[in-house]
């Protein structure tokens, strides 16, 4: 029943409720600039009134209220806005990673510039053209040798820089894997804390804010799928979790789950891929994988994988992230790699590539900086391959015209060589291929000619024997009939027709785009990539020059045009990355502002609430004071 004491309790409850609301408001104001904080509000409800229907209740004018209470402290959050922000955050992370590395590739090529490869190609052919006019002078020959060496050095430098850049991208993947696992561990701990708080009957608002902030950060690494569960818990997994062949989903792909006793997964980084003996890197075969358990550089493990194709090798080599198990209760098992069925891969196991638990983000809907680092490695590989094709085309075409085959069917003075094979010493002269004083000894020459098939941008170099004696450059019509140019007693010293033929290679159409950088030799290059020989593999006789040279292939392209096409492609890719980063930044900012308009703290609104709660508190205090006076009248005034 109601009375003064009941009214006193109503006022007291009002005081407590308004004080709690003021506490919540002050908490909002204090965290106005805290990243990831969601504003909170005190939800007030009326308490159970007097006069609830009952058999012994006396009918009256109506129920008499008993005051107010704070039923909950609610966090203002829109889950759909979280989903949109995280999705766009993943896209931004991917293209920021691509933009970073594609801009570095542009810096490596440094085109257009006076020191770029395009300029070196032009100066290389210019020097040969000038030599054709001054074949008898050592000065023109020296310029050819030095410009050729400069071109080879430029290709070497670009190759080495691209290779180093790829290693840097792999280091970024390794760091991203380690950071992702650290984020997952923190999210998992917060998940369990949130469950404990909610089970006890309280609202874990600040803990949920911390978890959401970590989820935002994780979404930049890769797309995540957040599933809500009981007691504000979540189950978390990547958006794309299919097996390497795409046939089905990885077994138990959850990274965080509600039940702490059930298995969750983590990510490990593949450090090295070492082929078995007698097998070249990149070819099909068995490889020993050394990986960092959970991305930790201090914990390594190994196993073997059977790769059936070059494509599978590239997929693994460019991805470098595999699934592993999370077992904090057993250090010997924690971080060990697992296959697509969730089984642990032991150190002495050899598994098929299709069974490998590869964390491959190849689906077009997948985003994130991990996807960016993986995709940019493919771009680097493509540019290295294009450089290799360019180097091989230059080396084979120049060598074919420069020295061709002598009457004995041998090339005694190749102009460009594979520097990895040309490491011999003759009479104290390092890297000499052929001893002109001992024509019978061709061991070094044979080794170098056999290694010509492996010429690429990283090992192309000018024959050191030519660098040391530029008069051995073959410039005359019949130089190809003699082991060395000095033995030619047919042509005059001013004959520069062979040098002119090499200069004219600038305009020759060669199918550079179709060169197999791993297997093409000079014979098949002439037969399939040029218009020479009618498909027989022989050079075409040029009646104007009076010597064999390379003719154009109608389906080919010029050397400098091929390289310019490569640079144009790079420019388009980098512009695309920059454009998407810019557009995505604006789009993400818009989503974040919309989310902040819902979850963010407005100081003006909080100050208005504070004034409202202050007046309500004062009014409730007045009620308590008034009831106190009335009780004084009842207790003390009735005695008079």
UniProtKB/TrEMBL annotation:
Residue ranges of domain Flagellar basal-body/hook protein C-terminal in the record: 597-635
Domain of life: Bacteria
GO cellular component: bacterial-type flagellum hook; extracellular region
InterPro entries: Flag_bb_rod_N (IPR001444), Flg_bb/hook_C_dom (IPR010930), FlgK (IPR002371), FlgK_helical (IPR053927)
A single BP term in Gene Ontology: bacterial-type flagellum assembly
Compartments in which it is found: Bacterial flagellum; Secreted
Domain Flagellar basal body rod protein N-terminal residue range list: 9-37
Family designation: Belongs to the flagella basal body rod proteins family.
Name of a matching Pfam family: Flg_bbr_C
MF-aspect GO terms: structural molecule activity
Principal location: other
Assigned keywords, A-Z: Bacterial flagellum, Cell projection, Cilium, Flagellum, Secreted
Protein name: Flagellar hook-associated protein 1
Domain (Flagellar hook-associated protein FlgK helical): residue spans on this chain: 102-236
């Amino acid at each position: 029943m109601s009375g003064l004491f009941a009214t006193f309790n109503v006022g007291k409850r009002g005081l407590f409720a308004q004080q709690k609301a003021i506490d919540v408001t002050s908490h909002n104001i204090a965290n106005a600039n805290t990243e990831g904080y969601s504003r909170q509000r005190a939800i007030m409800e009326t308490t159970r009134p007097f006069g609830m229907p009952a058999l012994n209740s006396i009918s009256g004018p109506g129920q008499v209220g008993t005051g107010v209470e704070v039923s909950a402290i609610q966090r203002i959050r829109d889950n759909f806005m979280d989903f949109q922000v995280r999705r766009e955050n993943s896209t931004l992370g991917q293209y920021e990673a691509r933009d970073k590395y594609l801009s570095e590739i542009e810096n490596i090529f440094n085109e257009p510039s006076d020191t770029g490869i395009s300029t070196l190609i032009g100066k290389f052919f210019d020097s040969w053209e000038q030599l054709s006019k001054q074949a008898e002078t050592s000065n023109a020959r020296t310029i050819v040798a030095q410009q050729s060496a400069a071109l080879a050095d430029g290709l070497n430098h670009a190759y080495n820089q691209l290779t180093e850049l790829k290693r840097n991208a792999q280091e970024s993947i390794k760091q991203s894997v380690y950071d992702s696992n650290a984020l997952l561990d923190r999210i998992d701990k917060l998940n369990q804390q949130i469950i404990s708080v909610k089970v006890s009957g309280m609202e874990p608002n600040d803990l949920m804010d911390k978890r959401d902030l970590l989820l935002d950060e994780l979404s930049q690494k890769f797309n995540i799928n957040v599933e809500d569960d009981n007691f504000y818990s979540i189950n978390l997994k990547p958006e794309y979790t299919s097996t390497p062949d795409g046939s089905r989903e990885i077994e138990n792909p959850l990274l965080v789950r509600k039940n702490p006793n059930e298995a969750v997964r983590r990510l490990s980084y593949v450090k090295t891929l070492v082929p078995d003996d007698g097998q070249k890197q990149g070819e099909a075969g068995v490889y020993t994988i050394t990986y960092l358990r959970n991305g930790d550089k201090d914990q390594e493990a190994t196993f073997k994988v059977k790769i059936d194709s070059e494509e599978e090798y590239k997929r693994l080599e460019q991805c470098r992230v595999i699934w592993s198990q999370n077992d904090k209760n057993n250090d010997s098992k924690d971080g060990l790699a697992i296959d697509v069925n969730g089984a642990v891969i032991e150190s002495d196991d050899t598994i098929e590539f299709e069974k490998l638990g590869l964390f491959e983000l190849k689906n077009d809907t997948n985003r994130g900086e991990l996807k960016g680092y993986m995709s940019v490695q493919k771009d680097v590989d493509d540019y290295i391959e294009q450089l290799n094709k360019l180097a091989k085309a230059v080396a084979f075409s120049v060598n074919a015209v420069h020295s061709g085959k002598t009457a004995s069917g041998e090339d005694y003075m190749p102009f460009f060589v594979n520097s990895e094979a040309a490491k011999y010493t003759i009479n104290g002269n390092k890297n000499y291929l052929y001893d002109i004083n001992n024509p019978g000894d061709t061991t070094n020459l044979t080794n170098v000619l056999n290694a010509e098939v492996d010429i690429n941008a990283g090992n192309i170099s000018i024959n050191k024997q030519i660098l040391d004696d530029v008069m051995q450059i073959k410039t005359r019509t019949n130089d190809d009939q003699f082991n060395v140019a000095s033995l030619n007693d047919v042509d005059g010293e001013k004959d520069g027709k062979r040098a002119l033929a090499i200069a004219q290679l600038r305009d020759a159409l060669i199918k550079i785009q179709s060169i197999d950088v791993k297997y093409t030799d000079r014979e098949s290059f002439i037969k399939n990539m040029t218009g020479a020989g009618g498909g027989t593999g022989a050079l075409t006789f040029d009646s104007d020059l009076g010597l064999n040279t390379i003719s154009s292939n109608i389906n080919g392209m010029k050397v400098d045009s091929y390289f310019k096409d490569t640079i144009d492609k790079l420019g388009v890719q980098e512009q695309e990355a920059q454009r998407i980063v810019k557009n995505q930044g604006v789009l993400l900012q818009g989503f974040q502002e919309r989310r902040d308009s819902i979850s963010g703290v407005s100081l003006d609104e909080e100050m208005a609430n504070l004034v409202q709660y202050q007046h309500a508190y004062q009014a409730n205090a007045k009620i308590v004071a008034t009831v106190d006076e009335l009780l004084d009248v009842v207790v003390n005034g009735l005695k008079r």
